[in-house]
Amino acid sequence: MQVLVCVKRVPVIGGRIVLTPDEQEIDARYLGFTVSPHEECGVEEAVRLIEGHGGASVVLTLGPPEAEEQLRDAMALGADRAILLQTDGADWDPMATARAITRTIRDQESANGAFDLVLFGNESADSCGHQVGVRVAHALGRPCVTGVKAIELGAGGVVARREAASGWEVFEVPLPAVLGVKEGLNLPRYPSIPGRLKAKKRPLERISPEPEPGGQQKVRLMHPPERRNAVEVLGSGPEAARRVVEVLRKAGVL
Amino acid sequence: MSAVLTLVERDAGVLESTSLQALTLGRRLAQRLDLPLHALVVGVGPPSASMLGAYGVSVVHIGEHEALDGFAPKAWARCVIDLAASLSPAAVLAAGTDRGQEVMAHAAAELDLPLVANTIDVEPADGDRPWLLTRQRWGGTILEQATLEAEIKLLTVAPHALSAAEATTRVQPTVETFAPGLTEQDLAVRVRERVEPGSGRISLGEAKVVVGGGRGVGAADGFRLLDELAGLLGGVVGCSRVVTNAGWRPHADQIGQTGTRIAPEIYIACGISGATQHMVGARGAKRILVINTDKDAPIMTHANYAVIGDLHQVVPALIEEVRRATGR
Questions:
Q1: CA A134 to CA B269: how far, in whole Å?
Q2: ipTM > 0.85?
Q3: What are the CA-CA distances from residue B238 to residues B141, B223, B246, B258 (Å)?
């Protein structure tokens, strides 16, 4: 089988975020980069599926040239090859992103056959748009389940479970399918040193797509209004327990 | 343009709090546009009309179809699309829940329109300026202003970012039902089965009391103390991402941007430093009480109350004190 997993390069944000002077980006000069926890699980799942069923796992990103780092990271965990849809670094809106990914999937599939599964993180860590995977599924005419925290391949296709307000919702869809996955799907492995060395030699294809933006355009980023709580220190150590009980009473939970 | 439409969700016949928040933003937008506020309810059951009226809804549309008793994201999206076609709303809003995001993404894909997710404020066009929206990025850690140009403005409302407020004048809404033109494809993805949790189990997202544990708990069995405290308070235990990555607790217990968003009366955070990813999930808590050895931990800037000390000593004392106070 063939599994495609899509990831997005994002900065590792610390406690305090600094914006660039033009307010278009987070100032990431002193930050490292990663992908979202959802996508880490997506990569792990793709690798496990191929380990179990044979075939190839492919990792794709749309981002700046430096996003090669995240693709190499994914290959260090076991992804077989990578595709970089290279941009000048500006954020693409969800419609433009979905269109570029859809076109790439079509091109890849006409050369190498269908991807049985295309995995997306349920939402990106930075933009949180919750839609690129659904848009790609729609364009390809494939079934799509989002919020997925368990995947099982069966005779009828794929059984995908997700958490609902209470309990689980279970879906079963035929392949090929698109899934938006969430952290908790699995516990991703750590890259090994041999894995890292192998990843350097694995094939990475660079494509430069033209953006076809939709009608949503970023104007600027800003900090939310600061909510500074005055902390009431109830005390130190076990002696503070009585004061805590008073707080619990006040909160109406005792 | 005839209305502002809000898709609402119900759980066991009761309107979800996140839907009430979406209705509140929808009403604010409708007032700015001088349009009526309509609501869309999908599936069987009473229309919750009086509650919707309290939020200023003048017309409740019910998408009715025998196939809509189980959740099917594209079938819900079809209800939105069909109603939008007959109503030509200026905007369609939904709560930014898992379902809301999913349904609106399907509708946006089918209509080939943009969808602005996790909105917290909307200003309609003014002169040459297009619609201007404020939305959450990074789970609300950063905000983005974005312009939106689209025939119908589709947006989801960030959960627990604004408080729900009833309208100043209560309306008695009219109820109109319609049958969506569902295709076989719209029903291809639908809930095949629901697995209910064990009886009596309170979900993390709904709990009134949450006791959270982080790296400071030290080991998986350290959570026994927190389980005991949560049990006494009728609450549940949650944890930080460090804890689930270490395998001490299942991911279902994780509070955070990629875990569960909580909204309890009180969140008792034990041995948690307060990483951004965690605090995003705790933003809905009414009060945060921190038990931590480090009085300068980042979590203190989010706390209402703090006990400076080792949770392994403070929590047993607290358990004893709660037992004494309640006789449990």
A1: 36
A2: yes
A3: 21, 10, 14, 13
Please report residues of B whose CB lies closer than 8 A to that of A169: 71, 191, 193-194
pLDDT tens sequence across B201-232: 788 988 999 999 999 999 999 999 999 999 99
Element (H, E) at A180: strand A177-181
Separation in Å, CA of A97 to nearest CA in chain B: 12
Question: Rounded to an integer, what distance in angstroms lies between the CA atom of residue B309 and that of residue B295?
Answer: 9
**What confidence score (pLDDT) does residue B70 get?**
83
Does B275 reach chain A within 8 Å, measured CB to CB? Answer: yes
Q: Do A237 and B150 touch (CB under 8 A)?
A: no
Whether residue B199 has pLDDT greater than 70: no
**Residue ranges of B 69-128 with Cβ closer than 8 A to chain A:** 71, 73, 96, 98, 101-102, 104-106, 108-110, 113-118
Q: How far away is chain B from the Cα of A203, in angstroms, using its nearest Cα?
A: 30
The reply to whether residue A166 touches residue B203, judged by beta carbons under 8 angstroms, is: yes
For chain A, domains (ranges, CATH) are 2-221 (3.40.50.620)
Radius of gyration, CA atoms only, chain B: 22
Q: Which distant-in-sequence residues (6+ apart) come within 8 Å of B46 by Cβ? A: B13
pLDDT of residue B315: 97
B323 touches A at CB < 8 Å? no
On chain A, the residues whose CB falls within 8 A of the CB of B145 are 218-222
Could you tell me if A66 and A33 are in contact, meaning their C-beta atoms sit under 8 angstroms apart? yes
Per residue in B104-129, pLDDT (tens digit) is 999 999 999 999 999 999 999 999 99
In chain B, % of residues over pLDDT 70: 98
Mean pLDDT of chain A: 95
Read off the tokens for A18: 């600094």
How does the average pLDDT of chain B come out, rounded?
94
What is the pTM assigned to this prediction? Answer: 0.93
**Residue contact B309–A236, C-beta within 8 A:** yes
What is the distance of C-alpha B72 from the center of its chain?
19
Q: Beta strand pairing status for B37-42 and A81-86?
A: unpaired
What is the C-alpha separation between B132 and A219, in angstroms, rounded? 9
* CA-based nearest distance A65→chain B, Å: 23
Tell me what pLDDT residue B1 has: 63
**Phi-psi sector, B45: left (phi>0), alpha (psi -120 to 50), beta:** left
* A·B CB contacts under 8 A: 255
Strands A117-121 and A177-181: parallel
3-state secondary structure of B156: strand
Q: What domains can you pick out in chain B, each with its CATH number? A: 4-187 (3.40.50.620), 209-326 (3.40.50.1220)
What is the sign, positive or negative, of the torsion defined by CA atoms of A187, A188, A194, A198? positive
pLDDT at B197 > cutoff 80? no
CA distance A97 to A183: 22
